Amino acid sequence: MQTLIKNGHIVTATDDYVADILINDEIIVAIGKNLKVDADKVIDAAGKLVMPGGIDPHVHLDMPFMGTFSSDSYETGTRAALFGGTTSVIDFILQKQGNSLQSALDEWNGRANGTAYGDYSFHMAVTDFNDSTRVEIKNMVDAGITSFKAFMAYKGALMLDDKQLVGLLEEVKKQGGLVNVHATNGEMIDYLIAKHRGEGKLEPLYHYLSQPEVTEAEASGRFVDLANYTGCPGYIVHLTCEGALNAVRERTQKNQKVFVETCIQYLLLDASLYEQNFDGAKWVMSPPLREKKDQETLWAGINQNLVQVVATDHCPFFWEQKLMGKDDFSKIPNGHPAIENRYELLFSEGVAKGRITPNKFVEVISTNAAKIFGMFPKKGTIAVGSDADIVIFDPNESHTISAKTHHMNVDYSGYEGWQVNGKVKTVLLRGQVAIDNDECLIPKGYGQFIKRNKVKEII
Q: What's the CA angle centered on 132, arms 126 and 133, to 5 degrees?
């Protein structure tokens, strides 16, 4: 099966030009001007941007949390991602304390196998690091799971103490992997949650006030120091604020290096949403939304190459699930839906408004994640030999985000009524037209597991 995309304005992290793309089955085999090929399928992309499929390295599909499950499965979540231009996701496996990493992998494979529309991989969240777990790290890396998550919060459920964290960093370094971290000071947050609850302060606003900026800044700096000491590549997930990014910035002056991810919501939304009484529960997530000054810092951080990735931390819950915390903010399931909106929102608010260049957009929406997590150049770029994961994008079409039209399995939108400039028109996944004019054209189960390489890219 040969597919020819003609006349497209191709944008990658480094290039910007008009050309044709020839795809043979799943792979890009030629790029050039006016390719003379008798292809099985021809797509005219004149007037459109042709960019790599998005990679969202931070999603939670069918995740058990706070006595319930996130509402998007591998089926609904990866399908919604494709509608929004994201062709690959990396989900978080959660090891149960007392159980093996392998048992967690078996559980998540059971959820994903045969159900995913888009391609996917896994991070392994290590919640119980011990001698047995240490031995399993190599097995996971050999299986293509080369990134491991540590939580510095959620004591008694997910949190590793510093002794366990250093042990994990040392072993992952030895095996050629990378450690992701949820960098917030769990001890201080637990203290503040208890304090606010004891004072009868139970509204969603107190979720935000229980996680002040200092809890993230302190833990981010501590993690960079520990990762630097062990020599293990480190990656801070969902960094939200000026204090945390400055902790990273200060350590660059000591030649310390860490990768930083922020999420689309922290660039666009702020903590004033928590003042809407219980309606603010829609945006209860951890870390919480921050202030306007933090948005400015994060946009600047992208252009300063301090922030390498924009993800989503997609973890949706139906409104009925959010109501579990109607009388106590600490019982509101944490997370919000964004997997379908990230690509278009970042283009609209970033490129269309002049905050970032089209090349920077591709870098943070796709290419950097592919490089950091061992998928490049198979994923994350448009190049001969790469998978034909391609988005054909109309930069001039405007539309409005709404729960009435989105494909995520959730009954509200965190961006209801948001006007977006730019629309995903056609999406190819490994050479197959997956989305075209708001229709999904591939079957459930088309998505494949991405076996990732050991960490080697320096970006």
A: 15
